[in-house]
TrEMBL record:
<protein>
    <submittedName>
        <fullName>Uncharacterized protein involved in exopolysaccharide biosynthesis</fullName>
    </submittedName>
</protein>
<feature type="transmembrane region" description="Helical">
    <location>
        <begin position="29"/>
        <end position="51"/>
    </location>
</feature>
<dbReference type="GO" id="GO:0005886">
    <property type="term" value="C:plasma membrane"/>
</dbReference>
<dbReference type="InterPro" id="IPR003856">
    <property type="entry name" value="LPS_length_determ_N"/>
</dbReference>
<dbReference type="GO" id="GO:0004713">
    <property type="term" value="F:protein tyrosine kinase activity"/>
</dbReference>
<feature type="domain" description="Polysaccharide chain length determinant N-terminal">
    <location>
        <begin position="12"/>
        <end position="104"/>
    </location>
</feature>
<keyword id="KW-0472">Membrane</keyword>
<dbReference type="Pfam" id="PF02706">
    <property type="entry name" value="Wzz"/>
</dbReference>
<keyword id="KW-1003">Cell membrane</keyword>
<dbReference type="InterPro" id="IPR050445">
    <property type="entry name" value="Bact_polysacc_biosynth/exp"/>
</dbReference>
<keyword id="KW-1133">Transmembrane helix</keyword>
<keyword id="KW-0812">Transmembrane</keyword>
Amino acid sequence: MTEYAPTLRDARIDVAAVFGALGRKLPRIIVVTLLILGATFLVLMMMPRLYESSASILVEPRSNVYVRAANEQAPAALVGDASVVSSQIELIKSRDTLLGVIDRLDLRSNPEFNGSQSGSSPLGVVMQLIGRGSSPVSVEERVLNTLYDRMTVIQQRDSRIISILVRTTDPQLSAEIANAVADAHVARRAQLSLSDTAEASGWLNQEIQRLRVAVRDAEARVAQYRVENDLFVVGANNTSLLDQQLSTVAAQITSAQERKNAAASRAAVIRGLLERGQPIESVADVRNSTVIQQLSQEKARLQGQLAQLSATLLSGHPTVRALNAQIGELDTRINQEGYRVAAALEAESQVEADLEASLQADMSRFKQSASTATQDTVTLDSLQREAKAQRDLLEAYLARYSEASSRVDSNSALPDVRVVTEAAPSVTPAFPKTTLILAGVGIVAFAIQAGGVIFGELMSGRALRPVEFLPAAAERPEPAVQAAPPVPAAEQPTAAFPELVAIEPEPDAELAQEPEPSTEAPQAGFTMPANANVRANGEPVRSASESARMLLQELADRRAQRDSARAAVEISAAVAPAPVTKPQRTLTGAVRFADLSADLVLGKTHLLLLADHGTGEPGRSLADSLVSDALAKGLSVVLVDAGSGRIGSAPGISDLSTGEAGFGDVVQKASGQNFAEVAWGQGDQIDRASTKPATLVEALGDIYEVVLVLTGRVGRSSSLPAFADLGGRVVLVTRDTDDADAAEETRRKLLDAGLSRVEISTLEDAVAA
């Protein structure tokens, strides 16, 4: 998140001064750029012109129905295109393929390839003068190396197309070399395919003759054994009937054992729970009992009545004792029913045991009958496996031999590559691209010089101008602290808690007669100076960072004063009798300041929504004390003012809701501290239809450990509905316990409006802490 720190931006860049300096140096920049372009043009003119031609090869399985064998299937698509195409590229660049191209085009006698032309070129002369000439090698190696350098073989993106690009000084020669390399690769792949097929067909013919005799003998032995041992009758899945009967009985025995063991185990579990005095309602068999379900419902009803009466009656009351006796009687009846369920399960286990014994007897009888047949079946299976293996191998060899012989006899083996695009002579040189190179050099030269001028102006300070901040207090007076005007019906929030805006607490007659408290509360805390334009004494407002520093200093002073007060109280308590304190009334849902601060420090509470009850902004004072404690424990804290209505000079949450400020502009972070603040801003009210305030608070929750949101006084002007969906802890803050009835009534209305948890806290407790 961008930090908002306007006091650190004490200088700005003078764009006019920067462009002025750039304009004064512009003639020199243009002259230097033209000189560089001229030198580059001379170098480009000395370089030889290279023309590029390209031929394309498609890698795919090839087949023709007219030259394919009768039982041959069409080849499938290539698997692993990347690896197959990469292998084809390496074959194209192989030495054997390129030697055929060299012999076909007689490149050994070409001066461009045999090295005789390099010594006469300007670049070659310069290389020889500095002692970097080429080492003496054979003509064949020199031609190969030159062809490697001038040829590029690449795969087109997301395809099986291979492009062969060749660059030479002669455009016609470039096209001839590219076409010759493509044709040589296609011819080599066809020759390799034919030679492999011919060798395979000869070997397959020999194996087929041997396997025919072996298969005939194996099948004859199988037929003879079937006749001798009377093994013709077979059931489903090519198995004998005895084997099927044994399999069925074995499956029934296993199922009976499982049912017997399951019933015995469930009965043992139920009896064990009953003997140990533990509840048995968690067992499935017990829960399925209709009697136990009725008894459990009656027990739950009696326990509910007992819990209600225990809150008002003692344990010895006759009604309480009667309820306990009834609950005990129900427990006894539930246990008796559990014993009956266990007995039923044990009877079920005994029935399954008898069935298992009967099936075991059948299994023994079938085993005696199938012993002889099983021994004969083992030998028959062995003979059948041998015959099947020989037959499968023969059929596979026959299919392969048919394919191979059809290809060799008809010379119809097609290579897996084909030329799809032949190279044509190029009319424009591929290198050097004079126009593009000059444009690039010119742009880079101009940009480097302009950047150097701008950098020099910034480093020298001539392009920097100080920023003068005008005090905002003289521009507009501080508005009176008042509730925001009611929101029209069209702007009412559409969140999950629209009833919160209708809650308006009854004003206290005594509080209504009191004047508005000053911005610095002497007892309950202090206020943030960044939220107002003018203080009570007329002092102008300070910047965001200065206000944050003053806040932290005032927090430290306030904590020191509080520690001194505690020490003084402890000393006075040691030498004087304890004063008589006025008994305080206990509020429903009340939370002590010490507990609230401990929850923030321990991480139990992360987001805290403080709503005011009554005048004087008690939530602000309570928030100041909580911020002080959290910062003292080393936590990171952010305070969001979403309810004061004080218009300030810095942008805040009201400007964010209307879109006049961004998220990074409204967060004012203290330099070097773990504290940040979101002020009310420059707007009159928060846009209730905007979701930006809730999004800001949710984002701050991911960054800071403690998030405090001031939602203002409960009522139609409160911003509490905008943050109710965030799941924060809602605390209704009052000045003291004198207005306890009104606070409890407001808390009840908030709960009825849909909030899950609302607590009450008083400033008297915070001051005492």
